[in-house]
Amino acid sequence: QVQLVESGGGLVQPGGSLTLSCAASGSIFTINAMGWYRQALGKQRELVAQTNSGGAINYADSVKGRFTISRDNAKSTVYLQMNSLKPEDTAVYYCNMYAYTTPFSFDSYWGQGTQVTVSS
Fold first, then answer.
1. Which of 2, 6, 61, 103 is within CB 3.0–4.6 Å of 111 for a Cys-Cys bond?
2. Are 57 and 49 spatial neighbours (Cβ–Cβ below 8 Å)?
3. How would you write the pLDDT of the chain (120 residues) with one tens digit per residue?
4. Any residues with CB less than 8 A from the CB of 33 and at least 6 apart, and which?
5. Which residues are bridge partners to 103 per DSSP?
6. Angle 77-78-81 (CA atoms, 0-180°, nearest 5)?
7. Partners of 100 in the beta sheet?
């Protein structure tokens, strides 16, 4: 099994910054994609940013130029640096990883979610 633990959420004023972290632990053979999703109240969960093991990165249009995703493979950790935050960024942010627990066993894992609130 693989467990993901997120940290770094909180309350921030518009224009401020936050950094989210998500560390994976457990029976990990290797991790392919790492990413962040968010779900605002009353809305569907949406992709924010994702990076794969080859280094390719994908961002939602709404966060391009403001958010930066990065990963530390040695620590099985993914980060999301969020700058110039807007009230519409308010949501629960979820970490997601596609991990192999053996060379032949592959699954998608989710963190518990961390609240980000952007408000004055």
1. 6
2. yes
3. 899 999 999 999 999 999 999 999 999 999 999 999 999 999 999 999 999 988 899 999 999 999 999 999 999 999 999 999 999 999 999 999 999 999 999 999 999 999 999 999
4. 50, 51, 52, 53, 96, 97, 98
5. none
6. 135
7. 30, 106
